[in-house]
Design brief:
The complex is a heterotrimer.
Chain A lengths: L9 H14 L4 E5 L2 H9 L10 E5 L4 H4 L2 H11 L4 E5 L13 H6 L3 E4 L3 H10 L4 E8 L4 H13 L5 E8 L1 H10 L7 E5 H7 L4 H8 L3 E4 L3 H16 L5 E3 L11 H10 E8 L3 E10 L8 H4 L15 H5 L31 H9 L3
Parallel strand pairs in A: 1-2, 1-7, 3-4, 3-5, 5-6, 7-8, 8-9
Antiparallel strand pairs in A: 6-11, 10-11
Helix pairs in contact in A: 1-11, 2-15, 6-7, 7-12
Chain B lengths: L4 E9 L6 E5 L4 E5 L11 E5 L2 E5 L2 H18 L1
Antiparallel strand pairs in B: 1-2, 1-4, 2-3, 4-5
Chain C lengths: L6 E2 L23 H15 L11 E5 L2 E10 L5 E2 L2 E2 H14 L3 E13 L4 H18 L2 E10 L7 E11 L15 E4 L5 H8 L18 H10 L2 E5 L5 H13 L1 E6 L7 H10 L13 E4 L4 H9 L8 E9 L3 E5 L5 E3 L13
Parallel strand pairs in C: 6-7, 11-14
Antiparallel strand pairs in C: 1-2, 2-3, 3-8, 4-5, 6-8, 9-12, 9-13, 10-12, 11-13, 14-15
Helix pairs in contact in C: 2-3, 5-8
Classes of the chains: A alpha/beta, B alpha+beta, C alpha+beta.
């Protein structure tokens, strides 16, 4: 497969691993902030090939995992309503609310349907005019253009039976929250390549300068990830803190302007609670007033539900890269993918679930 | 963030709104919304995420990346 | 019927399991939920009525002769998919379960549960398919049953089968037989069936010329057993190759090493998996088997497999490296190493 196979070439991988080994002198902490990157490191066994003195930590880059518990509970309450067809990306099905998840809603008779693209939710709405179609619009910036388009389509087609639960989160505020925290250990960031395919990387130089951390825009294939690691190490070893683009085949400084304009025509920055971390100002996107009619949480006015997080779950520390999943007392005991206690164990991209699946106790 | 996969644009449905096209991922062809890459041409490669093309693959940059790595390899040898 | 007349060697079943109050779809997916349901619900509930082996078919000793018995239900949707249909699937699935314990299939029964309103033409096509496949596999359809339920009672058509076979002297195939040194062989490309089905599913659909690999494997197995010592056979259906390998390592209590680079996969399956975020190791196959073969016979068995219609892409994908601990190490395509675990539940397409 073009643009994939070349970046999985074992020779190139070896070249980069060797170069990383010769370059690194001090122990550094590198954070990658994308669930897809966490997954890729573990899936290809890259994490085991990196030098031991390099510590790779995983940030809150899983929009599935960081959706606030209250919002999951509200989504679950909406999904079980009669007449509602609840459409969602596949990842959300296993996310546990306070007491259950979308799987069990489906088992109880709720009409829950997985869609690959948000436009399918629009098609379902058009095909079922007598039922209410709700779309769970989660994601980072990468998914926002798609989710925005669905909402614009609903407006254009004057659909009365379509609404969305918006749970959009943004990467740069999360990075600042982590870097600005007293307990921060992160020395350099691998920025999420596909977020940057949409947003560009013009937001990062200010962060790199303020916190004096190298930020490398990094892709997802083994060669991309290792290049990102190498460039970060090279900068760290020479005391630099710049932004570099290691995913040039897809990312430009400005990003996709048209996608950004569309996002801003539908969404506006809002304060957002991140499950496991807390509230980060202006770290999310909500619907602009002119689209508020499509807000499912208003349309269905579900009561504020009391939520209960497990006291054993140390998601906050995991998501900030302060602890590894293996350092959690509940990991692989009370907390497993079948019985997840918290956010990072829920989807395969959560750090805990990825560790469990690819490492178990090994 | 997220699962984006490169594919080759096989067809653009000019009359569709939003702009739709067909992308080949290597034996699997899927209908993709091309609205965010209006400059795309048939034969280009694009990055697809949840059924939307979000960027076009820059072949020159790709070649340069791989060349950089070859240079590292030859410096080692 | 007295249980004492027979020596049941094993309870063979692949029904799901649950940890919560309701059965979830994930309980039927072949992953961890499914296994938990068998181990933590069915077997304890059935107690002495069901001894335990966990191979694809149960082995019954009757007057010194070994018979194999298996059951399965077919609920595939859509009924007709690229490369096959529910009828072909029903016969092949049953034949293959018997073949996986080394049994020569003799006969199967076919129970049809039909939704009111199903066009007769559809049923005719399915039954014709059953007949054709049974002829190819040389299995006799011994008995049948038909039930019709009200609209909505089942999704168009479900088929349940029971298969019967006999195991010849000298054949001893079981998931618990693997020992260090055994070579692991897959009979062909993985994931074809699962992806072919997905391609015609609403929503996730995509265009491809990929076909299901559904096929009866008994003749291939016969060739294999005459070429060398076959220790373990498994057809990696729901849950895929990954799940089958996990099951075998648990039954035999061994550690195995497999090589991602050597696992044959069609480009279309790879592409679809990349697109949806699936791991091909967990996608269903309906015309493939994985075999653990005695080291000295591996090359001979591989060679004979490749001569067979259903083994042309057969490949060695790993070996058993150590006894005492059930584990799978996968050497990745880039030279890294990771573990292969069971899927938690249903395979979900990802966005991240």
């Amino acid at each position: 497969m073009k643009y994939i196979d070349e970046y999985r070439d074992p020779n190139r991988v070896n070249t980069l691993i060797k170069e990383i080994q010769t370059t690194i002198r001090k122990p550094w902490v590198l954070m990658e902030i994308c669930g897809g990157q966490t997954h890729a490191f573990l899936h290809h066994g890259l994490d085991m090939m990196l030098p031991n003195i390099l510590e790779l930590v995983h940030g809150p880059g899983c929009p599935v995992c960081v959706t606030p518990l209250e919002q999951i509970d509200r989504a679950l309450a909406i999904s079980i309503l009669p007449d509602v067809i609840f459409t969602t990306y596949g990842d959300m099905l296993r996310v546990p609310g306070s007491s259950h998840d979308l799987f069990s809603v489906r088992a109880s008779g709720g009409d829950v349907r997985i869609v690959y693209s948000p436009l399918e939710a629009i098609t379902i709405a058009e095909a079922n005019p007598l039922r209410q179609v709700v779309f769970f619009a989660i994601g980072f910036e990468t998914t926002a253009p798609a989710n925005a388009m669905a909402i614009l389509q609903a407006k254009e087609k004057k659909l009365k039976n379509f609404s969305v639960i918006v749970s959009h989160v943004c990467v740069p505020p999360a990075m600042e929250a982590i870097l600005g925290s007293k307990s921060n250990r992160v020395n350099a960031f691998l920025a999420a390549g596909n977020v940057c395919s949409v947003m560009g990387y013009h937001q990062y130089p200010a962060i790199a300068k303020k916190y004096k951390v190298p930020i490398i825009v990094t892709g997802f294939e083994p060669v991309d990830l290792l290049r990102g690691v190498l460039l970060a190490i090279q900068q760290l070893e020479s005391g630099q803190s710049r932004v570099e683009n290691a995913y040039q085949r897809s990312v430009t400084f400005d990003g996709n302007r048209l996608a950004q304009e569309t996002i801003y025509s539908v969404f506006q920055p809002v304060d957002r609670k991140w499950r496991g971390i807390g509230s980060i100002p202006l770290s999310g996107w909500g619907l602009r007033t002119e689209f508020s009619a499509y807000d499912a949480e208003t349309r269905f006015s579900v009561e504020n539900i009391t939520t209960k997080e497990s006291s054993l779950c140390i998601a906050g520390q995991i998501l900030q890269g302060l602890k590894k999943p293996t350092q959690c007392t509940a990991y692989n005991k009370q907390c497993t993918p079948q019985t997840p206690l918290g956010a990072p164990m829920v989807s395969a991209e959560g750090a805990c679930a990825a560790y469990y699946h690819y490492h178990q106790g090994v | 963030m997220c699962l984006g996969i490169p594919g080759k644009i096989m067809e653009l449905q000019e009359q569709s709104s939003p702009l739709m096209g067909k992308v080949d991922f290597g034996g699997v062809i899927k209908s993709v919304c091309m609205t965010y890459v209006p400059e795309a041409k048939v034969g280009d490669y694009c990055l697809v995420h949840v059924g939307f093309a979000i960027s076009l693959m820059n072949e020159e940059e790709a070649i340069e990346t791989l060349t950089l790595i070859s240079e590292i390899a030859s410096m080692d040898n | 019927m007295e249980y004492n007349e027979f020596d049941f060697d094993g309870y063979a079943c692949s029904i799901p399991h649950q940890t919560k109050e309701k059965i979830l779809l994930g309980h039927g997916s072949g992953g961890k939920l499914s296994h938990d349901l068998i181990n933590n619900f069915f077997l304890p509930e059935l107690k002495n009525a069901a001894p335990r082996n966990k191979d694809d078919a149960a082995i019954i000793s009757l007057n010194g002769r070994r018979l194999a018995l298996t059951t399965d239900s077919y609920v595939v949707s859509p009924l007709f998919f690229p490369g096959g249909d529910i009828g072909k699937l029903a016969v092949c699935g049953t034949v293959n379960d018997l073949s996986m314990v080394g049994a020569t299939p003799i006969a199967l029964t076919c129970g049809y549960i039909i939704e009111e309103g199903l066009p007769l033409e559809i049923l005719k096509r399915v039954v014709h398919s059953i007949q054709e496949t049974a002829l190819e596999a040389k299995i006799y359809i011994a008995a049948g049953d038909t039930k019709v339920v009200q609209r909505g009672g089942v999704d168009k058509l479900f088929i349940n089968t029971t298969g019967l076979g006999y195991i010849s002297e000298g054949i001893n195939i079981s998931g618990s037989n693997a020992i260090p040194g055994d070579v692991i062989i897959i009979s062909g490309t993985i994931g074809d069936h699962g992806i072919a089905i997905l391609s015609v599913r609403e929503g996730l659909g995509f265009e491809t010329d990929l076909q299901s690999d559904v096929a009866p494997l008994n003749h291939l197995v016969k060739d294999m057993t005459s070429a060398g010592e076959i220790k373990v056979l498994r057809d990696p259906t729901r849950g895929g190759l990954g799940t089958s390998l996990v099951e075998i390592t648990q039954q035999s209590n061994v550690t195995i090493e497999i090589y991602e680079r050597d696992i044959p996969i069609m480009p279309q399956v790879r592409a679809a998996c990349e697109m949806l975020g699936f791991d091909p190791l967990y996608i269903a196959n309906e015309g493939k088997l994985v075999a653990f073969v005695a080291e000295r016979d591996a090359d001979k068995v591989l060679s004979i497999m490749r001569k067979h219609q259903y083994g042309q892409s057969a490949a060695i994908i790993g070996r058993v490296i150590e006894a005492g601990k059930p584990r799978i190490y996968l050497k990745t395509i880039i030279g890294g190493k990771r573990i292969v675990d069971m899927l938690p539940g249903e395979l979900l397409p990802r966005i991240c």
